Amino acid sequence: MERPGTAAGRLLPVAGLAELPMRPDQPGRARELAVRQAMTRTLEVDLADPVITRVERLAAGPDPVAVADEWRALTYGELAAEARRLAALLERAGVGPGDVVGVGGRRCATVVAAFLAIELLGALYVPADAGWPAARVRDVLVQAGALALLDTGADERSPALLEGAAAAGCPVLRAAEAAGCEPWTGAPRLHSLDQPRYVLFTSGSTGRPKGAVVEHRGMLNHLWAKIVDLEMTAADVLAQTAPLGFDISVWQMLCPLLLGGRVEVIGDEVGHDPVALARVVDERAITIVELVPTMVRHLLDDLAGAPEGSLGGLRWMIATGEELPTELARRWLEAVPHARLLNAYGPTECSDDVTHHTITRADLDLLRLPIGTPIVNADLYVLRREDDGTWAACEMGEVGELFVGGICVGRGYLGDHDRTRDAFFRDPIGGVPGGRLYKTGDAVKLLPTGTLQYLGRVDRQVKISGVRMELGEIEAVLQRHPAVGAVAVVVHEFTPQG
């Protein structure tokens, strides 16, 4: 029985989700096409253990460095001990299974320990970025129903975090206080694989942020998907560059911990300076970096003045968060040919990325790059809306809307049943009891190469003089010109003066 007011108690039950309207023959047809076109991918991965269990298991061995920031480095044993002290601090404040805990402050090793502490208690992590204004902090903490905000700052404390927490009526705990706590000694409170693990707030069209709830199995599956597709080992060092409020920050701070690898936390001062970032990648032997394409462009612009051999140890550059222009991919392959370039796509509502595509030179002949094929245990369906309001499967080359199924699909929006019903549906296609589909709102088509191509938001299609146009397509053409750094196309309605 969930305690009243806990996050789990405010989730829309799967049985309460809407049905996706499809004609009787279409679910089978959609599944048949997805299987034939390799838009489903099944692989058994270890979802049983929480991340903290893997960390403590690895601490029993040689105990290498697990996470480092600009101030300190923690071995696996030290990270596990800090997580258990923080768990004791949180439990003393009344945090239990199903409760939401805000975590705020700069990116640092303490944030990683805080996530593991919250995992130990069976609670939910919700980040509150130190760069947010106080009103945003307040809105997120109120909507999440956070029981407390854990301030991970050591010396400097964010006034916006403190002001936002006070406005939300949310008590603030200082992570530094955990130093005087005896480590929490219980077993990790993982009751089921569909247990909510974290809430991340995304922008809403109404101006009110939406809290996407991700389950334990969805999060773990995404971590293993990255390990499988990037061929990660204990030798890898992953840069944690994303703001805490950005969904990719979760895999960046956890994925290496499943293997005995290392997380290198990169602060904003370095992360926003391409020259400094390249230097730190070399100095800290970082092998995997993930950036938005805009930052990849700045990095390439500044590499011309960098020392010879810069980024020499880099194995992967992952582009995410924005569409990756073809010309930018061409520049990367020419400038840093030894580091593979991965195009990643996915919504926060589906535990982060749902497709991966390693860019090849053959892709450079395309107007728009593929976003790829499904990650492990994800099902992708391209559906079109018929005139009668039902959804039907698209053939190869047809433009439709992307729907995501599989264990990666989250639980919906916390405390927002209306918006949950608009985007999450009971899955009539996959045939798994309790399965869910997420309606992405993204227009895609399947290419003859067996990969998906992203075409923009479904609501960006416009008609001009009766002719349908995709604004994203126009942007892609303009982006190919070497003199164009960034582009946005909008429709301006011109009324002639009479």
From TrEMBL:
GO molecular function, one term: phosphopantetheine binding
Annotated GO biological process: amino acid activation for nonribosomal peptide biosynthetic process; secondary metabolite biosynthetic process
Residues covered by the AMP-dependent synthetase/ligase domain: 58-414
Domain of life of the native organism: Bacteria
Pfam families with a match to the protein in the record: AMP-binding
Stored SUPFAM superfamilies: Acetyl-CoA synthetase-like
Cellular compartments per GO CC: cytosol
The protein's name in its UniProt record: Amino acid adenylation domain-containing protein
